[in-house]
Amino acid sequence: MNMQRKVLEEILDNILRNLKKAGFVVENINYPENKRSIDIIGLYNNSHIMIKVTIDATHVSDIEVSDLKKASQAYNASSIVVSRKYRKKEIDPEVVYRRKGINVVNEELLEKYIIKNEKPLIYEAQGNFLVRINPQKFREKRLELGLSLGELADKIGVTRKAIYNYEHGKISVTVNTAVKIAEIMGMDVFEPVDLFKPEKIEIKEEFSPRNKIEELLYRACNLKGLKLYKLLRTPIDYVLKGARNTVSVINYRKDPEKIRVKIEEATRIARITGSKEMIIRGLDDVKEIKKYLEETLF
């Protein structure tokens, strides 16, 4: 076993152990063998989480990021990357980083979050370290202190307009400004980063059918008003999502050993997400999926 594989397995073991300790039902996903988009999927109190594990988050590919985003939307899950480095530097255990819209943390921060319920305050954006303001609590504290917008601005060393923006949730503050605010107003006026709260993630690419099977799936989903997601590096190939139900579709592969492993791993995802698992071996199976969609309330 090479050193990189050993480190990855160490990180995986730590995450799995802590998630189980916190009460999560978890599955370790092992398909495809290399360059997969999802390593861990978990469930706790009807909330789903999907985790990609790596040593340096810089090396998480655009395809893997896209899969994480689409899987998050398809299964109403939160998605994070757990890594020890980002941009070749050690990840600060107090900071949440972002990789093309996905939260990136190290295992120490994740452990504190799930075991001790310590939610991080600082996040990194375009090289800046920022803290979010809770607009309502900020305004309530200002009024409690009997300060006008201008008076509070003078004490913090910002403009009156900045205070107005804080109270309307329009901007975050730098760590230096956050320290000044905390000295005057306390820590309760800040909004922690909730790693397990699904965020609205922008997905730019539209589904475009590339073969007969995809064309039939696309038409079937349109007829039922369902969303169709295509995943590239997970055991699930397509997800058909409605308001009430979700279908996880596996595209059959000829290699008997690989398809066996793929179906086993896909079943783990379907079980955790509570989705219906269906397999496509040919066009007849697509017709069966269409029939299921017609008979099921979505």
Automatic annotation (TrEMBL):
GO molecular function, one term: DNA-binding transcription factor activity
Origin: domain of life: Archaea
Classification via CDD domains: HTH_XRE
Alphabetically ordered keywords of this record: DNA-binding, Transcription, Transcription regulation
Cited InterPro entries: Cro/C1-type_HTH (IPR001387), Lambda_DNA-bd_dom_sf (IPR010982), MTH_967-like (IPR020886), MTH_967_PDDEXK (IPR059051)
Residue ranges constituting the HTH cro/C1-type domain according to the UniProt record: 138-195
Entry protein name: Putative HTH-type transcriptional regulatory protein Shell_1199
